[in-house]
């Protein structure tokens, strides 16, 4: 679906995500370490859990019927990803930490504050899911380095869904952003959500000294 305003928004999103992707790799910081696969998958499990909860909350009070159906589909996909990652984690003798799963991130709290269909479409399916694709790609490259074929197969499936989620958000915005004012509102939301992600990521890399965390 073509829309010059959304093409401009795509460029802003892509440039900012590319910056975050390079930061995720942690190549510039010799003190950054890559956690064991079990720990990476536990982080992934938490992301999928949060996204499932978030989109389920949104489905309850969303007023746009078409977007509501898209959110329901997204929630179902994220729940499926949770189950697949949980299965892989258990095959590696990983332990599910329910206490950690039920801690909410700053990104979750930010997204829960989005009340309009427009704001949810921009920050959720459009921006967050694009970020998930980028983060998962960095994680996939790490899995390839390790020759972890089972996790590679798993994340190739997950990536297909995440890319579709982003496209759902983009299609909605292509039919909704019809003016410079709409575009500026969308830009603000994109930069807000990525700013929250940047702050979280900086804490994880600089304070905890880890990188290569997958997305949701």
Short description:
By secondary structure, this protein is mainly alpha-helical. It has helices at about 5-25, 35-60, 65-90, 100, 105-110, 115-145, 150-175, 180-205.
Descriptive account of the structure:
The protein is mostly helical and 216 residues long. It has one domain (4-207): Ferritin, core subunit, four-helix bundle (Ferritin, Up-down Bundle), CATH 1.20.1260. Helices cover 78% and strands 0% of the residues. The chain has helices at residues 4-25, 37-61, 65-91, 98-101, 106-112, 117-146, 149-174, 180-207. Helix 1 (4-25) packs parallel to helix 6. The radius of gyration is 17 Å and the shape is globular. The model is unreliable at 27-32 (pLDDT under 50).
Integer-rounded radius of gyration: 17 Å
CATH superfamily: Ferritin, core subunit, four-helix bundle
Listing every helix as H and every strand as E from the N terminus to the C terminus, the arrangement reads HHHHHHHH
| Structural class label | mainly alpha
What are the segments in which pLDDT stays under 50 over at least 5 consecutive residues?
A: 27-32
Number of helical regions: 8
Distance between the termini: 25 Å
Helix content: over 70%
Mean pLDDT: 88
The total tally of domains equals 1
CATH class: Mainly Alpha
Q: Please identify, by name, the CATH architecture.
A: Up-down Bundle
């Amino acid at each position: 679906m073509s829309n010059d305003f959304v093409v401009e928004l795509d460029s802003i999103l892509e440039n900012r995500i590319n910056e975050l992707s390079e930061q995720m790799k942690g190549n510039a910081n010799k003190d950054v370490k890559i956690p064991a696969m079990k720990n990476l998958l536990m982080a992934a499990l938490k992301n999928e859990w949060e996204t499932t909860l978030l989109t389920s909350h949104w489905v309850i009070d969303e007023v746009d019927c078409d977007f509501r159906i898209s959110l329901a589909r997204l929630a179902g996909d994220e729940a499926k990803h949770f189950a697949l990652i949980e299965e892989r984690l258990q095959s590696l003798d990983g332990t599910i930490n329910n206490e950690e799963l039920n801690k909410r991130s700053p990104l979750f709290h930010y997204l829960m504050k989005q009340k309009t269909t427009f704001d949810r479409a921009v920050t959720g399916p459009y921006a967050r899911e694009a970020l998930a694709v980028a983060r998962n790609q960095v994680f996939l490259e790490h899995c390839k380095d390790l020759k972890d074929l089972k996790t590679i197969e798993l994340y190739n499936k997950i990536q297909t869904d995440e890319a579709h989620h982003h496209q759902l958000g983009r299609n909605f915005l292509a039919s909704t952003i019809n003016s410079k004012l709409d575009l500026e509102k969308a830009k603000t939301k994109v930069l807000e959500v990525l700013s929250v992600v940047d702050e979280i990521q900086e804490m994880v890399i600089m304070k905890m000294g880890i990188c290569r965390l997958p997305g949701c």
